[in-house]
Amino acid sequence: QVQLVESGGGLVQPGGSLRLSCAPSGRTFSSYVMVWFRQAPGKEREFVAAISRSGSSTTYADSVKGRVTISRDNAKNLVHLQMSSLKPEDTAVYYCAASTRPWLEVLTSRPDYWGQGTQVTVSS
Question: pLDDT, tens digit, for every residue of 64-80?
Answer without folding.
Answer: 999 999 999 999 999 99
